[in-house]
Structure formats: C-alpha cells, structure tokens
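Record type: ASSEMBLY
Status: queued
Input:
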Amino acid sequence: MRARRTAVLAGLAACAIALTACSSDSDDGGDGGSTAGSGGGDTITIGIKYDQPGLGFKDGDKYSGFDVDVATYVAKDLGYDADQIEWKEAPSAQRETLLSTGQVDMIFATYSITDERKKTVSFAGPYFVAGQDLLVAEDDSDITGPESLNGKNLCSVSGSTSAQRIKDELASKVNLLEQPGYAECVTALSSGQVDAVTTDDIILAGLAAQPGNQGKVKVVGNPFSTERYGVGIPKDSDQCEAINTSLKKMFDDGSWDTFIKDNTEGTGYTPNADENPPALDDCA
Amino acid sequence: MSDFLSQFGELFASYDVLGAFWVNIQLTFWAGLIALVVGCVLALFRISPVPSLAWVGTAYVTVFRNTPLTIIMVFMTLGVWGQLKIQVSDDFPTNFFWLAVIGLAIYHAAFVCESIRSGVNTVPLGQAEAARAIGLSFLPAARMVILPQAFRGAIAPLGNTLIALIKNSTVAAAAGVATETSTLLKNMIEFNSSLIYAIFLTFAVGYVILVIPVGLLTTTLSRRLAVRR
Amino acid sequence: MSSQTRTVLFDAPGPVARRRIRWGNLVAAIVVLALAAVVLLRLQQQGQLEAEKWTSIFTADAWTNFYLPGLLSTLRAAAVAVVGAVVFGLVFGMGRLSHMGAVRVVSTIVVEFFRAVPVLLMMIFFWLLFAQKDLPDPSFWAVVLSLILYNGSVVAELVRSGVHGLPSGQREAALAIGLTRDQSLRSIEVPQALVAMLPALVSQLVVVLKDSALGAIILYPELLQQARLFGSGNSNILQSLTVAAVMFILINYSLTKAAEALGGRLRGRTAGSTGVQGAGLENGAGAGATLQAGTDEHDQQGLLGPRQG
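Status: finished
Output:
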C-alpha cells in the first residue's frame, strides 16, 4: 500500500518535471548560441511583434511584416543570413527587460525612441517615422482627423497613449472602447459599431492590407503625432554604427520603399513624406 | 518604514481603489440578481414534463458551464454588441458595464440552475409523492412543496456560486469595463513597480473581506434553514 | 434524467395534460428556433457567415500553427497546475486536519486566503512580478502558479471534507489496532478520502481548463490567445473564437461525463462518498462552508436520483 502510494506520487512528480522541462525547451529555443555583437557567427536573436499583421506577424514558422523585412535586411549586413535569425516575441511591456537581460540582441517592434527608454536601452535608427492616425470605413468622409471625433465611437487597445491623447486634448466627447488587440477593433469597425480605430499609421495600414479588410477600411492620412521607430539594442552594445550604416544603405538602394509598398499593398497608404525616410540619430 | 507608508498613502490618494471595488460589487449585484432569476427558470425547465423545455435547460447548462468565462465576455462585446448591435446605452461605459453584467449573468445562471437542482435532489421522494397524492399538478407542486425545500437545501451551493461571481467579476475587464479592480491592479503595478507586494496584498485583502462574510453567512443560513429529516 | 425520475415529480399525464404538453413542446421549440433564426439572420447581414470567413479555419496551416499549439499550451498549463494543486491540497488539507493547533491555523489561513482572491488578480500579479525578477517564461508560470494556489486550496477542502465524510468507525478501528492519530490520518483516512474525491478532482480539472483561458489576458499563448492571433491575421476573429469555444466545450463536457462515470464506478471502493459536487462549479466556498460530503445515502432517495452535478 505504502509502496504503491509512493510510486504514484513519484509518477506524478515525474510527469510534472517532464512537462515543465518540455516547456522550457520549446519556449526558450532562441536563447542559446547567440552572443550580442559577434558578427558572422552562428545566430542572432531578434525581438519582433507576433500579433501585428503588416509589421510583425508570426504565421506558424513564417514571419512577415515591415519590421521583419527591415530586421532581415539589417541582419544580412551584420553577417547573418535569414536562416541564422532566431525570432522572439517582444510584447510592448517586456522590450526593455528582453534587451537588458540579453535574451535578444536587437528589437524591431514598433519601438518608439524616447528619452525615458534611453535610460535603460540604446537605439539605432530611426528606420521609420510613424504618426498616430485613424482607421475608418472606406466610405466614411466625415472623419478627417481627431478633431472630428466628438460624439463618435473610437476603439483602441487597452492602455494606448494614442486614444488617451485624443480624449484629453483633441476631442473630449469621444466614446472610447478599449480592446485587447487591434484585430478586435477592426472587427467592430467593419460591423459599423465603432467609427474609427486609432494607433500609429503604419500599424493601421498593415491592418488595412489584410486580405479580409482590403477595400473595407482606409487610413485617414492626417497623422497627429510623430513616433520614431528605432532599433532597440542593449545599453552597452557596439552595433549601433553598423546598424545605422545598414539602414542608410537600405534607404538609398530602394529596399525601404519596397518593404513599405509590399506590406501596405492595396491600401493606398503613403508614409508621411516630410519625415520619411528619416534622418538617422547619432550613436551615443 | 514611514517612507514606505507615505508612498503607500500617496498611491491610494491618486488611485480610486474603493471605487474599483464598488464597480465589482455593482457588477456582482446585478449579475447575481439576473442569474438567480434565469437560473430558477432553467431549473424549472430541466425538471418540467415538457421535453423541449427540458432539452433547452440541459443544452444551456452544458454549453455555458463548459465555456471559459473569458470567451463569453469577449463575445459580449465582439458578438452581441459588435455584430448583433444590441446596445444597452448610448454612453459607452454604461453600455459595457451592462454587457459585462449580462455576460456574467449568462455564465453563472448555469451554476444557479445546477445549485437549485442539487437542492431539489435533497428533497425526499415522499414529498413529491405526497404532493401528487393531494392532487397538486406540476407547477403548484413545484411552487408550494418542492422548490421551497429545494431552496433551503441549495443555499450552500448558491453561496458558492455567489462567491465565484464576486471573484469572476474581475473578468469584466475582457468585456471592455476598464474601471474594475483587475485593470486598476495592473495599472498601479505598472506605474509603481516597487510597491508590487503592497498593491497586490491590498486588493487580495479586499476580496478576502468581501468573500469571507458571504461564506460564513451562507454556511450559517444553510445550517439554520436545513430541513431536518 | 431517466423516465423513472420524471414520474416522481408529476403524474403520468392524462389526455388533457398530454395535449397541453404537446402544445408547450411546440411553442417552446418555435421560440427557440425563432431566436436562433434572428441571431443567424443578423450575423448573415453582417457578413459573418460568409464561407471565406470560415474556410481559412479548416486548413492544415490554422491547426498546426495556431489551434494545436494553443491547445497544447492549455493542456500543459492545466496538467502542471493539476499536479501542483494535488500536492498543495494534500499538504494543506492534512494541515487543516492536524492535531497541532499552529499547523491548523496556518493551513486554514493559507487555504481561505487563496480561495478568496480572484485567480485573474493572482495571474496579473505573478506575471508582473516574474517579469520584474527576470524569470524565464513569466506568463506560463504566472498561469500555473495562480491555478495551483486557487485549485490547491479547493483540493485541500476536498481532502478535509473527504476525511470528515468517512464513517467514524474507520478512525476508531485504526486507533484500536494501535495506530497513532497521524498514522491513522495518513494510512487509513486520507487514502480513502482520495479515492472518494477522485471524481470531484476530475471535475475540478474542468475549472482549471476554463481558468487557464484567463491566461490570454496576460498573453500566455493558450488556446484562446492563439485563436485570437489566428483571427487577427485572417480577419475572422469571431469565427476563430467560436472554434476555440467549441473545443473547450467538447473537452470539458467529456471531462464532466468522465467524472460522473468515475463516481459511479468508485462507489463501493471506499467508505467515503463519491458524489461529484457541482462538477465544473467553482467551489469557492468561504470560511468553513461545508461541502456536505457523506450525504449520498440521502441522494439515493432524492428526487433526481444520484447527484448529477
């Protein structure tokens, strides 16, 4: 009796250990073998978004989007082929942690350069200047900018600064709906229950370019802020100059335009020409 | 220590913690009320002689008891409001508050129904047989003989359902209610990460204070009201 | 519900009653069908029933890249959580039964605390805490730990009420053959209580599975979250979530049925009661609420037959 019980407990424990071991195997696959700042070596780990179609999206073992294209281009110049890149999900709230703990070597994830963030991480770039904008139904001509949102329904993701700015500064009588992701917002937009979705214009263009959304929604094209997307790198990294050189080359040889065009196809979106392609910051 | 206390005090001056709990209490109250009514009707359906009604009751319980509440809450905004365009109020916060109430009520009605059924189960056969013997048909027998006893037997599981409802009201965050406790907890920790333990404990103790009396009350009630047999 | 239990609640219907039942049946069916039709029509108008919204779901790509990995993550979190919850529950359940006052008090406080705190709050707290401490995979461990603490407390209560539900003769016999109270608890009472609570444990698994979906809120890539992601990329989030919901319902329904069958089979293997207490119900009873174990004898005569939860 006692022996059997012990055996059962041991079995349970073994199960638990096996399961957790399996979990750390499959989830941390990108960690091993990558050392920050070693060009031409084995692999490089890059943090991207997994849930933003058109920018960074994971579809099984395929990765697509503007951030992914730029990251692949830069990695190539640093001496890594596409098959030497390990992709890792970099949710907004964890980007600084991923860099400072060395879990990723670079981050291309709609990562705005701010002074606050520069305290803990460094940036190369910027490689794109986005602006907060609105996504509306294709046949909507009433909404031309954030000021025309009074009395309208606006959707954004929880904790978005873009939506809060509209509510606080631009249109105080807007009805604000918060959702966990942009796809939910677009679903509500195409059913007509919200009048607009707000976030950075390139993210909106990426959403509008999805096959199911094409021809149903459009980006207003009246950005009301500037967000300078940089390449996040660890504070002590020596890669900034190399990345900037690569970005410069990308702007000049037309690849940048191709990436934008590929990922926003069919939406008629053009990036803010005054700001793009952006002037690179000096490496600190 | 006094430094910690002053930080803590400052934090509570700038965040409306009591207000957030009040939102959860309101969610619980209205959802509980609706769930009780719907659950009773469902329980009647399930024990009624009409096959289609019994089927409806069983199907309802099977579906909603086995669906994660999170999915139901997401469907309330994306499906019921987004696609069926059922709008409770023009004011967004009010609208989503009520959608969350309905979502919570739909989910917990299944558990209320099962609680009452388990209460019906505590009523001895003889009661139903006696009711029939004096000529009562289904509804009068249910109303005067079986349900009153069943309710007294169902107090403990109903209390458990109420406690689950209090705690589950935090999932209203998934239905677009941004003023309740789980959202506030997240915001407070994100902007005051050094006080993470104190913030969590505050909310946890808040729920202990809400839940323990309900548990004690239903235990006492179920003991006092239990039909002695 | 068998036909035998039906006849307990009402007389065998006569011709008038039968006609009334037939009408009631018809009206109820029409109302239900009408409701369903209205909803479907509305969805049709919104273009949500179009084939193209559904076809992408039934491709190998959707399943190998989204639904199956999601399901696997859900099951993995649930499995680890259940094992942890049983260990936690055994430790603190026996702690609450200990004859040492201090152990009893500490166990009671721990169990009552974790039964009262919403699982979602625990998940958010652990998630942010683990991320702050640079631990790997914070969302997975936050989901697992929260589920262990809550469900472990419920299991502790199951252990306690299971032991209380045993006939007192079991312990008296153990003491009579010279076992100490602790030995009696460990070798005689808890093992029997464990067998008795197996069905309830299986139905607790339903709660674990459902609560693991809260992990979507802290970005754990479980079934619901993966369904959301798939829907984001294919503009069919409602359809994708529907598929996830159906999968949850099927799994949980089978588990509930399994728990009931197990309860029937184990009757007689133990001196305890094997009734499934509110299968899938979140047994979040407050302080001292009894789970009323050991009332199965009455259930046999109850109106609905053995407890069906």
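Annotation: Residues 17-47 of chain B form the longest helix (31 residues).
Annotation: The mean pLDDT of chain B is 89.
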